[in-house]
Every structure is written in structure tokens, then in C-alpha cells.
Write a structure and sequence with these properties.
Amino acid/polyamine transporter I
Length: about 450
Amino acid sequence: MQQRKWTSKLYFLAAAIGSAIGISNIWKFTYVAGENGGGAFILVYVLALTCVALPALIAEFVIGRRGGQGVVRSMDVLARAEGVSPKWRSYGWLAVTAVFIALSFYSVVAGWTVDYFITSLTPDGQVSDTATAASNLSNMLADPTRMMFYQAVFIAVTAATVAFGVKNGLEKMLGWMTPGLFIILGVLLGYAFLYGNMEKALSFLFTPDFSTLTPTIVLMAVGQAFFSLGVGVGVLMTIASYMDKKTPLIRSAVIVAAADGGVALLAGLAIFPIVFAHGLSPAEGPGLIFATLPVAFGQMPGGLIFGPLFFLLLSVAALTSAITLLETIVACLEDLTSMSRVRLTIIASALLWLLGLLTVFSNNIWAHVYPLSFIPLFEEKTIFGLLDYLVSNILMPLGGICMAVLAGWGLGKVSLLDELQVGDTLLFRVWLFLIRFVVPAVIGAVFLINLL
């Protein structure tokens, strides 16, 4: 087995930030914020990121560094060293299962971003009306061969990175891709400032209208803060297991959470000025990125350059997350088998591609197949809809609750203080209270509301 350790704190941060920042921060955050009134939603999002997601992230880092292995084997280590129940191994398998299913459909959606980037470089990729943009999106979704190709390209790049290991694969790719993501976002932000309606975007994003808030929207904002960070399914735990004792855990968690929330807000500032400048609606839903923005770029000065640059940003964000997702799967398998990393990566990637076909076909040849239509809650959900529901509404919340309970109640105070490198101070007690009571309660509420 290859040595799995970060060679510097910066590489660890590049991996953790790259993992946290994915399509969800740019695509989902903007359309969910747009659909739910902007400012008030974002205020709740920031509060949830600070009071729920950050304490949970610190807890996951603690468990990861304490366990020092993949997510399943770490549970075995903690059972021996910390006296936690061996049954926590079940949580490890739940986490890896969630990651595997999520990456199978994530790679398909990521393939769309690669497709749009390539297409936007051609004359056919430039559109100036909503009908053409909608038609382009429909044509892509209706073509399974095209989707399968870009899905395969994305998985192949991800697999090639992971196969080379931590030092020669993850560090070399994430070491330049994560900073590159911020550079691209900065360029797009400058473009939005020059050619978009920044004043209206700032008002929309940062002037809260509390009349728009409902309990469901509050829990949606909390869920976006928690799950966009990727807490609870062992990915950040795996990354933290490669961290040395000299890396300041709390400070690292604060940096990662701030980067995660910062990218979401900056993405909003890069996208909404362009939307408002062209009289388009911010409440376009999932089509905001793939059907609405191409129209705006097609009408704006420099759109031939900045349209492709935007989809390059999405592709890079998708890839930085996918690399750490696949690393979580491969690291777990590497701990439990004697097979080489290269072979494990190839096998895992092939299975991911095959499972991803369920998502591909759910958009075309199986678009009207509803396997659980006899259950009212699932009567209009395709196979992809069911997989997404399973991961987003069941496995991730359960994983988040399990992780909080393990850190808050399973590990002893001495172990927690040792990993956090702090004294038994008021700040530590506040964090312990949050992770023991607040985080499980809030995620439990999100879990229950999603089941209704």
C-alpha cells in the first residue's frame, strides 16, 4: 500500500477546499438562493455554516486524524484505541456506499459541464435566445451516447489522478486546480462587475426579506450549508486521516468552511449580475446554469471568452470534488484488500460508470420509468431521482448524525482535547455542546422534513 500522507499543510488545505467546493456551491447554491428570495436565505445559510457545518467539520477532522485510515478501517482503529463499539463499522460502510452512489450520478452531471465547455468553444455553442438554449439542453439530455462519452471522460481523468496516489496524483492535481478555481472565479467576478447589474445583485443577495422565510426554507438553507460542505460521508474524514499532528485542526476547518461559503457567495456575485442585466429571472431553478446563463453570455461583450470560462470553472469544481470522492472509495478498498491501488481504481471507476448509466438513461430512454410509482412520495421519481433522494435525503443526513454522535459521545474528552490541541476552555465546551446536541438535532430536523 502506498504511503498516504500529505507532504505539506498547503496540500491538505488544497484537497480539503477542493473537496468541499463542487458543483453544489456554484450551481445548486445559486438556483436555490434564487428560488428562495436571496438575502434572507443567504443569511440563514451563513449562520448555519458557522453554527452547524463548521462544528461538524471540526468533528469529522478529529475522527479522521484520530482513526488515520480509510473510513471503514478507522472505525476499527477507534474501537480498539478509544473503546467505541465495533458496530460503528456499519457507519463506515454507510458512508462509503453514499459516496459511491453519489459519485455515480455526480460524474454524469459533471460530464454535462465538460460537454458545455467543449460546445461553448464552437460556433454552435453560442446562443442568444432562450428557445435555442433550452433546445440545446434538451438535445444533450436526449442523447445517451453523448452523455455516456462525457461521463467516461470525466471519470477517466478522476481515476488517472487517484491511481497515482496521494503525492503523485492528488497533490499534483489539486495543488494547482484548487487555486485555479479561485482565479477563474475572480476573473468572472470582474467581468460581472463590468458588464452585469452588480447593484441589483448585491441588493438581492444581501438585503434580507424575512417575510420570504418559512420553516422549510430555513431547513433548506441549513441543509445547503451542511451538505455542500460534504460533511458526514467520510470524504473529509479520509482527507484528514492523511494529516500530520503539526497541522492546526481548528484553523484548517475554519479556512475550509470559509472557502466553501465564500465560493458560494462569490459565485452568486458572478452569476446574478449577468442574470439581472438581461432581465432574466433568478428563480429559474436547475436550468439557471445550463439554459439561462448561455443566453446572457451570448448577448454580452466578450461572451465568446467568458461563457467557456464559466463552464471551465464548473468542470474544475466538479473535478476537485470527484477526485476526493473516488479517493475515499479507493482508500477504503486499499485498507481491506491486498490489490494494488491502480487495479482498485480501475475496478471502482468501471463500476461507477456502469451505475452512472442509470442516471444517463433516466434523462432519455427511461425518462418515464418510475420504479416506485406505487408509493405517493416517489410516484414521479425516475431511477436517478430515487438515487439522488437516497443519498441526499437519507444517507447523508444519517451519516451527519452518526458522525456528530461518534465525535461528541464516542470519543473521550482527553482524545478530543489532544486532537484539537486546546485546553478545556469555554470555546471547547461550546463546540462540544454544539456537536452533541445542536448538530444532531438540526440535521435530524432536515432529515425529517425531507422525508415528508
